[in-house]
Amino acid sequence: MINLGLAQISRALGSGEFSSVELTQKYLQEIAKQNSDLNAYITVCDELALSQAQAADEARSQGNAGPMTGIPIAHKDLFCTQGIRTSCGSKMLDNFIAPYNATVVENFINAGTVTLGKTNMDEFAMGSSNETSFYGPVKNPWNRDLVPGGSSGGSAAAVSGRLCAGATATDTGGSIRQPASFTGITGLKPTYGRVSRWGMVAFASSLDQAGTMTQTAEDAAMMLNVMAGVDPKDSTSSDRPAEDYTADIDKPLTGLKIGLPVQHFSEGLDATVEQCIRDAVAEFEKLGATVKEISLPNSHLSVSAYYVIAPAEASANLSRYDGVRYGYRCENPVNLEDMYKRTRSEGFGTEVKRRIMVGTYALSAGYYDAYYIKAQKIRRLIKNDFEKAFQEVDVIMGPTSPHTAFAIGSKNDDPVTMYLEDIYTIAVNLAGLPGISIPAGLLNGLPIGLQIVGKDFAESQLLNVAHKFQQATDWHEKSPV
Ligand code: GLN
Q1: Superfamily of domain 6-252 in the CATH hierarchy
Q2: So where are the chain's domains?
Q3: Is there a catalytic annotation at residue 292?
Q4: Which of 8, 62, 123, 347 is the most buried (most CB within 10 A)?
Q5: 172 C-alpha vs ligand 1 centroid, how far in Å?
Q6: In the annotation, is 152 catalytic?
């Protein structure tokens, strides 16, 4: 039963094949067996999960079940969960029990889902390998010597290792799509503002967006149905009405116009990955799509612009961790300054400190125009590139990552190499667009992800395009377990 995807589980629960309690028990058993090695979960909520499952089964027996009732999911450990530790992968919040639920979490509770636990992540979502977590690295279920990608590596490993039916995650520069690619699952990053950020621990507020990790696009649509919508508590959430993201999922792709950015098929891309992506595109042509080359001329500037803007916003967001209000406080401070200093030096890990320093520098008087303003101008140019491309094509396709998952420890000494991990994903965040990564092949037994990027609020179309591919191929069915 734990091998089933979310939509399949929904149908099985509906037809009474098994109960939510039975399924939840199975997942909890599997987590107990696997998690000490995989390290996908930071916190497992056995009791809560079983009581929610019981309530879901009761609701169903009274005829009150929706499509998500009784489905066991996990939340990335940066969504506030009332009464449950919300650590954000950091020593700073190791002792933080959230007093309220994030809107996303609240929506899932209202939809009747079961919370299995909180998934591991890079500290404050800063990373591409899940190695910056205070709780240690997550292993890739396909090969436990390899990283699962990051920062949502715990959610990715939990879905791919069949330790939950689906998981929430967030993507600031690629943290849903890159780990989805490395673990052979479907990762959807919606348009900025489509999903409320309220109750999500902030990293870079103009880029952070919550999304889904699932086996299939159909599963992602079901989760997005629960998550999407305006939230009066988040002024950056969009008031554009949410849709039923499953409604158009089966539409034929006849006439779909696909753009392939030349910049995403050039130097640095593994030849086998490229071949897989080209084969996937050929599959879309069989499904009735047409393909043309496009250009995103400023895409080579995206990583540089991001590593000014994201740290700048992070330096402001993380100033709240001062040992006064909540979270970690150093032992026996001699005065206020000592408390601030030691709390922050002891509570944050190396990568977080690096970002705070870069961000503070970029925002400081005298450097602000040269770095921050310049980066914002580049961001505009990148958005313009996409707008121009979308006058000619409906969706843009390419590799999610230039390669497959890499070895734990192999890129730790070189931050810039690690930053380049998101070379194909970051521009999408800078432009605020929706993107999805779906499994599209294997290289030496390791998954390869195809990235599909859409126009603003084109989630339905992205899910439709991904779903039709998944109906025609079986890459999404390959599993490490
Ligand atoms: N890898 C990028 C970073 O470290 C993106 C992280 C993310 O999307 N949360 O900033």
Answers
A1: Amidase signature (AS) domain (3.90.1300.10)
A2: 6-252, 300-377
A3: no
A4: 123
A5: 6
A6: no
Residues with CB under 6 A from ligand 1: 125-128, 151, 171-175, 203, 310, 422
The span from the CA of 407 to the CA of 415, in Å, is 15
Ligand 1 mean position, distance from CA 19 (Å): 38
- Length, in residues, of the chain: 481
**Residues 410/433, Cβ–Cβ less than 8 Å:** no
Phi, psi angle pair for 155, to nearest 5°: -65, -40
pLDDT along the chain (481 residues), means of 10: 97 98 98 98 98 98 98 98 98 97 98 98 98 98 98 98 98 98 98 98 98 98 98 98 98 98 94 96 98 97 98 98 95 97 98 98 93 97 98 98 97 92 97 98 97 98 98 97 89
CB of 150 within 8 A of CB of 129? yes
Ligand 1 atom nearest the C-alpha of 207 is 8
DSSP 291: E
pTM for the full predicted model = 0.98
Q: Which amino acid is at 267?
A: E
Closest atom of ligand 1 to CA, residue 421: 1
Q: Is 175 a catalytic residue?
A: yes
